[in-house]
Write a structure and sequence with these properties.
Layout lengths: L10 H4 L1 H15 L11 H11 L3 H4 L10 E2 L2 H11 L7 H8 L1 E4 L4 E4 L17
Antiparallel strand pairs: 1-2, 2-3
Length: about 130
């Protein structure tokens, strides 16, 4: 999936079409979700628990925000911010903070911190280059 960087940034951070395509792959192949982490999503978490051979309560602790493939370096946040737009008055920094956005190194897309997928890896996120 990895493509050449554009102005030092992964293409998915700069092109919404690439990001959506790669996110769809994560949804289809690795059950990226849940759609809205604010809801209970009982079935979603029960399936994750079965996959990881644990309880739904424990599975809920394995989120993108603590995955080793979740990149939140200052450089990556800058890439995401640029991709969201730099026109006067934009709210890209607020969007990044509100969604706890980072970059998924496994599936090459902008990822929300409260979601997860079947490819979750412990000991993240990466915050330093």
């Amino acid at each position: 999936m990895a493509e050449k960087f554009v102005n030092g940034c992964p293409p998915a951070t700069q092109d919404i079409t690439i990001n959506l395509k790669n996110r769809k792959i994560a949804v289809d192949k690795a059950n990226y979700g849940p759609l809205d982490p604010a809801f209970s999503n009982t079935d979603f978490w029960r399936k994750k628990a079965d996959l990881f051979n644990t309880t739904p309560e424990m599975a809920k602790n394995s989120r993108c925000k603590n995955c080793a493939a979740f990149i939140q370096t200052p450089q990556m946040k800058s890439c995401i911010e640029k991709g969201l737009g730099d026109e006067p008055g934009n709210m890209s920094k607020q969007v990044i903070a509100k969604a706890n956005l980072g970059y998924c190194e496994i599936f090459d897309f902008k990822c929300a911190g409260d979601r997860t997928c079947d490819a979750w890896v412990m000991n993240g996120p990466i915050t330093k280059k």
